[in-house]
Design brief:
CATH architecture of the domain at 26-128: Sandwich
Shape: elongated
Number of helices: 2
Structural class: alpha+beta
Helix content: 25-40%
CATH class of the domain at 26-128: Mainly Beta
Number of strands: 11
Largest sheet: 6 strands, mixed
Oligomer: single chain
């Protein structure tokens, strides 16, 4: 009877170790910037950098807490086909529009299951890049532009 108890305890410990190993290998999103800026009418993308073993099989995106619906066959968003999910899981805009602005998250999946969603990404789509720089950076940008002109 005591031998059976030890075997059962050993099996529970082994099961706990296997569960911990599986949880550690679920895909997870690596750190990324909280704010992404794209220029309206130009192509752009949101990346979902991940770490997983085995590798990520697909990525699901949400915008403003709603799923970004894509066509499984072509990877095109329902509608005009302007937004696609790349084979690497990036959300690609061709071109970006003001309507694309919003709060996005990505969730990676692997053969082992669903990983944790990313931290929220605030996507800002504006008409030009100059709005994106703080005043000290504009001076640097203008200096660099002048160097290229001369």
């Amino acid at each position: 009877m005591m031998m059976m108890m030890v075997t059962l305890t050993g099996a529970c410990v082994l099961l706990s170790l296997v569960s911990a190993a599986l949880a550690a290998d679920l895909p997870h999103v690596l750190a990324q910037s909280g704010h992404i800026y794209l220029t309206r009418s130009l192509p752009g993308r949101l990346d979902c950098p991940t770490d997983a073993n085995p590798g990520v099989t697909h990525v699901v995106w949400t915008k403003d807490e709603r799923p970004v619906v894509v066509d499984g066959a072509s990877g095109a968003a329902a509608g005009d086909g302007r937004v696609k999910v790349s084979r690497h899981g990036s959300l690609v805009f061709r071109p970006a529009t003001a309507a694309d602005s919003g709060l996005y998250t990505c969730t990676p999946y692997s053969q082992l299951g669903k990983g944790q969603p990313s931290a929220p990404l605030h996507l800002h789509v504006k008409s030009d890049h100059l709005h994106y720089f703080h005043s000290s950076n504009i001076i640097t940008l203008l200096s660099l532009a002048r160097l290229h002109i001369v």
